[in-house]
Amino acid sequence: MDEYSEIIKEHPYLILINDNPVSWHGFLLINNNKLKMEIKLIVPNYPSMKNSILRFGKNIYHMHNTDFSTKSMELLHSAISVPTFLRQLQRLMDTCIKKKKDYLNNNLQVFNDNLLDELTGVLKDSDVAVLGNNDLTAIKLTYKNISIVLEQTSLIHNPWTVVSSDLPTFSVWPSLDKCVPSLVEAAKTLKARTDILQDVWDDLKFIDEYCWVIDPINPKPSHMHRRININSSLSLLLTMNPFDSTAIQDMKLLGTDNKWDDDLTIIENLQTLLNIDELPKPPIDRGQHDNVLIGENDCCICFCLELDDGEIPEVICNNSKCHKNFHAACLYKWLEMGARNHVAFDVLYGKCPACKEAISCPIVKNKKNNN
């Protein structure tokens, strides 16, 4: 029997599609003829297998996570004839399919047991709502109307991946994928981050209610910015910082390109954007004007020169470009609210409310003032 007849007899779904170079295309039957694996075998030096090329169809995914790719290439390079190679390749496919099925069956039971344990753990927390699809391959966790959706993976040590989240991302926070080795940990992370962001979301909700927000059009919890319309040619871009609610938020004035006239001076363009006739000018002598917002020697926090107990500003910022004055009591209360400020030797250290450079305030004296 010649090789062609032998191949046709053993592999009826393979067809000789080309004589030069000799090329076979079709399917090998494996797994007790239940599965067809598409292949294309090109043998340029037929009947020698030297420099032969082997290609697979899309259903090669059945062989993923096995050593099939390496071993099939080893068979191809050592083959002595086409019929022998096809028989060896067919046996290799059968072996790899069986190993993969055994692996999945053994680990599926372990994973299902772990899943039940995880769901039990999450359901103990009444604050977190849990929803899942029919086969529990996707789980949705919700806390205070903020949700994350997780899907199962085939990895035993990292069985979940986040596919959707209402939470914003920040560089100081680890990626959510790195925080969810289990559903219980996912629920803890969701609650912790939601509680941190709640005050900021309340502020943004207030802005949405009382301001003309032009971006985002439909705000979501993950949006930490708001672009507020000021007039037809000007808007304010506000970006919230959830980690320091006492700090001045990041604000930028944005103008429209079509309102900037190259024939006008910068001052004239600014007046047009701001819709004012004249930009404010500094007073000749601040001491002679009673209607200024803050005097030269006034406290930069309470805007007063003298407190009810007669105290006058005695703390001055060391920054030469700032030199703002503060009552010791006012500065102490301000610094006391900062989460990152620290105490050493009865002195409270933090940042100047005006220029953000380092500033300090003695504690003992201010405790007396506060009592």
TrEMBL record:
Residues in FANCL UBC-like domain copies: 200-282
Pfam family, one: FANCL_d3
Segments forming domain Fanconi anemia complex subunit FancL WD-repeat containing: 7-94
GO cellular component: Fanconi anaemia nuclear complex
Any one Gene Ontology molecular-function term assigned to this protein's record: ubiquitin protein ligase activity
Transmembrane segments: none
Record-linked InterPro entries: Fancl, FANCL_C, FANCL_d3, FANCL_d3_sf, FancL_WD-rpt_cont_dom, Znf_RING/FYVE/PHD
Domain FANCL C-terminal: residue ranges: 298-360
Gene Ontology terms: biological process: interstrand cross-link repair; protein monoubiquitination
UniProt xrefs under CDD domains: DRWD-C_FANCL (cd23832)
Annotated protein name in UniProt: E3 ubiquitin-protein ligase FANCL
Organism: Aphidius gifuensis (Parasitoid wasp)
Organism placement in taxonomy: Eukaryota, Metazoa, Ecdysozoa, Arthropoda, Hexapoda
